[in-house]
Amino acid sequence: MRPRTPLTALLAAAGLALTAAGPTTAAPVNAAAVIDVSTASQLKAALTAVSPGDTIRLADGTYTGNFKATRPGTPGARITLTGSSRAVLTAGGGYGLHLNGASYWTVHGVTIRGGQKGIMADAANGVVIDSVTVHDLAMEGVHFRKSSRDGVLKNSRIHDTGKNGRGMGEGVYVGTANDLTDRSDNAQILNNTIGPGVGGENIDIKEGTTGARIIGNTFDGSGLTGANYDDSWVDVKGNDVLVEGNRGTRTTNNGYETHTQRPGWGCGTVFRGNISDLTGATGDRQLAVNVTNNSATCRTTVHASNTVTGGKGLTNITVTP
After folding, report:
1. Does 4 fall in a domain?
2. What span, in angstroms and rounded, lies between the C-alpha atoms of 119 and 131?
């Protein structure tokens, strides 16, 4: 069997620093490593060399290019990409950071700007995106796609997306339109600030996905244009979604909407404890929660704990105590 090239040698060839994450004495051969990077080329090299349990640590500075990770971590040995908000991944096109099959990654603290899309997770389970800033993109900010299950986006800020002027550019996009094979289930979108300048819905949950949790976020719909039906902060087309404890301001029409794009989808959404300010909305409905698909076989529940200022009311269905 041909011997493997040591990780230290691979990283040294790229000018990278490697330190043990654990004690400095008698560290095991396969100990988790901290890989310090300060240039775009070093980052690309680290993304190809990283192993489960490792951490890539970015120095402050600008990293220009498109960055792709394909090596997965494991549930017990996650891979971490971390830096401060002054570590900025800047793309001229394409994806800023593409987690392609890179399951069990944590992306923490960094800023991603420019390009077509900010962070794209494809077939990547258990991805955690925490305390990042994503902005100034042609299209959407963060996208969980190709059955990327159990993804988490939390404590982050997304603004100024959809700058190509086509009325697209959601802040957060879960699933794929009209594709029921994309089971990007159980996405958790928690305690984020989304907007201003988001050129589509702040959050779009697509048909085919189940179990999303949208909790504790702050929405600013000032970037909504009305093109491609982007007239609300959140549009739910998946099943069994919880929308709870969010606060929204500035929308062109409604606060939240549910739709059935494909039979059997857009069902089971629960709205609870959301605060909606529809002041200035000019659409034809102007409801905090507009439900287009409530029936005996496709229930939506709007609790009385939701509140609304301005507009024409809380919802168009019977409110649940």
Report:
1. no
2. 13
